């Protein structure tokens, strides 16, 4: 005789627990962090790749030197084939984006790091995104996700039933909200790769 486990009897409790976790995640994100950690793709600022002509320097060393100059910036260490040099990428967020700002950051970056580490600093490349472009990109990304939901709703409703479409959309929205809350709580940078990942999650959630 087969034993039947009625997992659905816990459905209401599990759903309520999940909603509470998501809700608390959003509260924590906006109350404690002050919002999401938007990457350079969705916020204005300057991104610079540079090399320090000295080995053994870590990203936290660079952050320590530049923390007295910039309030909102992020440094990432890049693995390079040249072991005699240290390769980094820095993103300095700013509402003002023009060539004068980029030139000023280049100069400050070189002077501060050269003084701190006693080594030459070489700027490999740099680019900036202004606030208007980043705002448009952010809006279009949100619209892309919403349009994906609408198309899925139409397809499932025509191919199967409307009730199936609504339930699948609700389940997918739950998964996306959980991921978005997770991104906010742990201050994970939201960039174009994250948007692609969210679209991938939408695809897997529907299976």
Which percent bin holds the helix content? 55-70%
Numbering strands along the chain, what is their spatial order in the largest sheet?
Answer: 2-3-1-4
SSE order in H/E notation?
Answer: HEHEEHEHHH
Query: Are there runs of 5+ residues with pLDDT below 50, and where?
Result: none
Mean pLDDT: 85
How far is the first residue's CA from the last residue's CA?
31 Å
The proportion of residues in beta strands is: 5-15%
Q: Count of helical segments?
A: 6
Number of strands: 4
Q: How many domains would you count in the coordinates?
A: 2
The Rg value, from CA coordinates, equals: 23 Å
Globally, the shape reads elongated
Would you kindly provide a written description of the structure presented here, covering whatever features stand out?
InterPro entries: SecD/SecF_arch_bac, SecD/SecF_bac, SecD_SecF_C. It comes from Borrelia coriaceae ATCC 43381. There is one protein chain. The chain is elongated, with a radius of gyration of 23 Å. With 207 residues, it is an alpha+beta fold. The protein is built from six helices and four strands; from the N terminus they run αβαββαβααα. The longest helix is centred in the last third of the chain and has 29 residues, at 131-159. The protein has helices spanning 11-32, 59-66, 99-117, 131-159, 162-185, 192-205, and strands spanning 45-52, 73-78, 86-93, 121-129. The protein folds into two domains: 7-37 and 133-205, no CATH class; 45-129, Alpha-Beta Plaits. α1 (11-32) packs across α5 and α5 (162-185) runs antiparallel to α6 (192-205). The model has no long low-confidence stretch (mean pLDDT 85). A four-stranded antiparallel sheet has the order 2-3-1-4.
């Amino acid at each position: 005789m087969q034993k039947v486990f009625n997992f659905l009897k816990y459905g209401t409790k599990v759903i309520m627990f999940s909603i509470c976790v998501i809700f608390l995640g959003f509260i924590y994100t906006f109350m404690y962090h002050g919002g999401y950690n938007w990457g350079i793709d969705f916020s204005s600022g300057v991104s610079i790749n540079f090399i320090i002509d000295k080995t053994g320097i870590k990203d936290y060393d660079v952050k320590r030197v530049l923390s007295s100059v910039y309030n909102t910036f992020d440094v990432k260490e890049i693995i390079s084939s040249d072991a005699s040099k240290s390769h980094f990428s820095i993103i300095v967020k700013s509402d003002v984006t023009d060539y004068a700002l980029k030139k000023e950051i280049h100069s400050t970056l070189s002077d501060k790091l050269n003084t701190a580490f006693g080594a030459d600093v070489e700027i490999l490349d740099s680019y900036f995104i202004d606030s208007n472009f980043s705002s448009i990109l952010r809006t279009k990304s949100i619209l892309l996700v919403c349009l994906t939901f609408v198309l899925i709703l139409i397809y499932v409703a025509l191919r199967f039933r409307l009730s199936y479409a609504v339930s699948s959309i609700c389940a997918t929205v739950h998964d996306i909200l959980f991921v978005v809350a997770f991104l906010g709580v742990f201050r994970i940078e939201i960039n174009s790769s994250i948007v692609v990942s969210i679209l991938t999650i939408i695809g897997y959630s529907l299976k």
